[in-house]
Structures are given as structure tokens and as C-alpha cells.
Please model this.
Amino acid sequence: MMCSDRITNGDAPACVTVCPTNVMKFGEQEELLKEAKEIIYSDSRYDRHIYGEEEAGGTAWIYISDKPFGELGFKMNVPKESIPAYTKNYMHNTPIFAGIWFAVLAGLYAITSIASRRSSEKENATKDDEK
Model:
């Protein structure tokens, strides 16, 4: 995925390497953000927003544009909080609920096993009494 063999060898993905307009870059996010900020603040044609820097907690893809992103069809109501932050509290409690569920099921198994064993013992005792 994403030319993993090329990246492992220290090369950029093929799409970045062969892009005829040189509009895509590949590298460390901090370096790319720094470069994007230098571009948008040094050239007044650019919109002063880096899409993907803060959206959804920051994304793996960032975009700069000379037009507002809303006009280009980008969703502008993306929350700034990261997606995992929405599930953090639920996932944090998952081991607790799993442990409780395990205890309940183990208890039910023990109860039914004991009841089954007693039933078998009564049945065997009744058969022995009939003999």
C-alpha cells in the first residue's frame, strides 16, 4: 500500500515521483507543514488555511490551495478533535465490561453445571432405587 517497498527503500511513492505538475510531496509531516506555511504566508494568492492540519485531529494528507476549500468541495465542518478521541472513553472501559461479562458467563456455567450434575445424580439414584 502506498508503494511500501519504495518507502522502505527511502524513495517517495511512485505517484509523487512521476507527478508532471509537481503538486504532490512526500515526507515528514512537520517538515511538510512548515513548507506549506511558508508557501501560503509568502504568496498572497493562497488561502491561509492548510486543510488537514487540524481537521479530525490532523490527517496524513494536507492540502494548500489558492481557492477556499469549501468552494472546492471539501467538507468544512470536520471537527478538530481526532476520531479516536470519540471512542477513547468507551474503549477504556471495554476490559472492565469484558471482565464483568466473563464473570457472569462463568457463574452461569457453574450454576448450570452444578444443576446438571445434581439432576444426573438424582436420576442415577432413582435408577439404583428401582433395582
